[in-house]
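ping. complex inputs:
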Amino acid sequence: DVKVTQSSRYLVKRTGEKVFLECVQDMDHENMFWYRQDPGLGLRLIYFSYDVKMKEKGDIPEGYSVSREKKERFSLILESASTNQTSMYLCASSARIGTTNYGYTFGSGTRLTVV
Amino acid sequence: QQPVQSPQAVILREGEDAVINCSSSKALYSVHWYRQKHGEAPVFLMILLKGGEQKGHEKISASFNEKKQQSSLYLTASQLSYSGTYFCGTERGNFNKFYFGSGTKLNVKP
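pong. complex structure:
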């Protein structure tokens, strides 16, 4: 089974802290994604990457950055955490067929609370 | 750009059928369906790539009408285990950019 592992299930951070969320996948997938999920707003794409060292902005990239130095690892960085970044963060990976994504495999999520 | 799902919520008794719809204002290249149970990550159910294609297994199937830019998920003879929130996801050919619908909450009762 494809496995996507997120380093933390729950995190509590203070406003202004720099926060790192780590994600590792074990199936050699080209594509990796970071979403945040909030009640009533669904899943919103923050950043994605379709290759090592490549990154593309999603719909809500402000306040976030990402790093993909190795194919299996995709990190989300909150440069200076704010309370409006309190959310569930979901990492996902997918294989690429041509120019389309095959089904996403999601990690179990990191529930981040910024106080 | 986000696809629109309907209905927002459904309550069923075990054994009843349900249909969840997903539509887009833009031309679609593919449609995915996912189910998320409370407190868990979404799980991939199926992908539809061709117009008019219907896929599925057991009692969950889906159709994709490329011309109408719509997809429907069919749950027949629902079971308690079908409860959860169902999301469609659509890709419009922008390389790797993908949009999820807002979700349909399905509650199957005994």
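Residues 13 and 109 of chain B are 5 Å apart (CA to CA).
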